[in-house]
Amino acid sequence: MAATRSDALVVFGVTGDLAHKMIFPALYALVKTGALNVPIVGVAAPAWTQAQLAQRVEDSLARSGGVDDPAALRRLWDLLVYVSGDYKDAGTFDAIKKALGSAFHPAHYLAIPPALFETVIKGLGDAGLAEGARVIVEKPFGRDLASALALNRVARSVFPEDAIFRIDHFLGKEAIMNILYFRFANSFLEPIWNRNYIASIQVTLAEDFGIKGRGGFYETAGYLRDVVQNHLFQIVALLAMEPPAGRDYGAVQSEKAKVFQGMRPLTAKDVVRGQYVGYQNEPDVAKDSDVETFCALRLFIDSWRWEGVPFYLRSGKFLAQTFTDVLVELKPPPQPLFADSAPAPERANYFRFQLSPKSVIGLAARVKRVGKEFVGEQRELSLIDEHVGEPTAYARLLDDAMAGDGALFTREDAVEAAWTVVDPILETHTKAVLYDRGGWGPKEADALFTVGRGWDNPSSDLAPTHAASKHL
Fold it and tell me: Which of 50, 42, 35 is nearest to 16 (CA)?
């Protein structure tokens, strides 16, 4: 039976930074396509007028590409209502109820600091605004296992699990969704997608910029909490999960949860933490801060398919380039039949999923050179898939949440299992190692490799990675 679509959207934190950067452009995009035509109630503490909120939206759209459909913008104004109030005041929720009018199935989007999640969720329950409604919660969902368990208890005390949408915008990206599709839409992968043929898997999410004035946030989070435990773990789940029974919410989420449950809890020797030189001089950062701006780790999944296969994950600020890439390195042939096919510094066979800045699927193989001798060279066959005009991740996820489609969201058991993996090293870890800006992080991360040929750093053009590549 199809889920009932939400008949209103309530955005808590509508005057905040997240709304300005991501949510307003998503709402505009949904209105343009006709996917959003229900009341939008913006809620925040500042005593703004409707005109001030309108100016905020216009500034947001100007920064994200401008307005190419004035009629759609007018429709957005007609749908948008502003409610000012304190989240701890019951009167604020009464004002929201009044603004919703005849809407009985709203979706409440908590684009607010995590410290306020519990207050707003309880406020919605006390005001009778949770019945028949959904709640969309921004990451991070907890900051460790204990806080995640506590927050889940609060959320489940007010909303049923299938009405809770834990949003990670990373899962709404087209290239991320393509991993799931490519794995299970092509029969040639399944026979080799296991410990018998795969030597190692590495995932890199690199950024060539710093914390951009978010020192206060990073001092309470760090890269392990902000990026690795959610974004990178979600990629691993899509790479490692078993085939789901279908693409429905429950089937996909169940298989992803099993991956997290099979992950071996991390120890200090599995992790290298780094901090870029100059981080301690950033605003709102402690002069003796040990917070990591780079994190690399070696991860194992104790399952029949992946036993013994290391997953190497790394992510950091002020690295050489901004890109996200997955490299699945295959084991070499069992016998070196040709003189030049013996183990060498280069990787012989691998699959590549480049997720940004371009979407690329690559397959590396050795190809014989012209001539009498059986001598070859390395080639990467690459399919570059540009997605011009694709919906933004936030537009896609907001639309899915309002439709009740939870396939691209995170379930309670998966959140708790992921925190169980990283919980042992959140407080018990080695000191962060300083690294220079513009490189690939601390050299200590190289020592994590026990299998495989080390980190795969891209060439300057990012796609294709190897000069000898051929486009399909």
Answer: 42
Looking at the fold, whether 128 and 181 belong to one and the same domain comes out as no
Rounded to an integer, what distance in angstroms lies between the CA atom of residue 355 and that of residue 178?
9
Task: Tell me the C-alpha to C-alpha distance, in Å, between residue 153 and each of 12, 138, 142.
Answer: 21, 16, 12
Please answer whether residues 114 and 88 qualify as being in contact, where contact means their C-beta atoms are separated by less than 8 angstroms. no
pLDDT tens for 75-119 read 999 999 999 999 999 999 999 999 999 999 999 999 998 889 999
For residue 45, give the CATH number of its domain. 3.40.50.720
Q: How far is CA 249 from the centre of its chain?
A: 18
Domain identity same for 332 and 444? yes
Query: Residue 162 falls within a domain, yes or no?
Result: no
395 within 8 A of 29, measured Cβ to Cβ: yes
With residue 59 as reference, give the H or E element that holds it: helix 50-63
- Nearest-Å Rg of the Cα atoms of the chain is 24
Count up the domains in the chain and report the number.
2
Q: Please tell me the distance from the alpha carbon of residue 398 to that of residue 400, in angstroms, as a whole number.
A: 5
Give the contacts of 411 (CB within 8 A, at least 6 positions apart).
161, 166, 253, 256, 257
- Token readout for 85 is 């109030």
pTM: 0.88
Tens digit of pLDDT for each residue in 109-154? 999 988 899 999 999 999 999 999 999 998 778 889 999 999 999 9
Q: Is 231 a catalytic residue?
A: yes
Give me the CATH number covering residue 362: 3.30.360.10
Same domain, yes or no, for 119 and 176?
no
Is 44 domain-assigned? yes
Q: Is residue 447 part of a domain?
A: yes
Question: Is there a single domain that holds both residue 107 and residue 182?
Answer: no
| Beta strands, E only, 111-159 | 134-138
Report how far residue 350's alpha carbon sits from residue 454's, in angstroms, rounded to the nearest whole number: 13
Whether 27 contacts 38, CB under 8 Å = no
Q: Which of 169, 231, 387, 471 is catalytic?
A: 231
Q: Please check whether residue 402 lies inside any domain of the structure.
A: no
Please, are residues 282 and 317 in contact by the beta-carbon 8 Å criterion?
no
Tell me the pairing of strands 198-206 and 271-276: unpaired
Tell me the torsion sign for CA atoms 98, 99, 100, 102.
Answer: positive
Residue 195 domain boundaries:
171-392+410-471
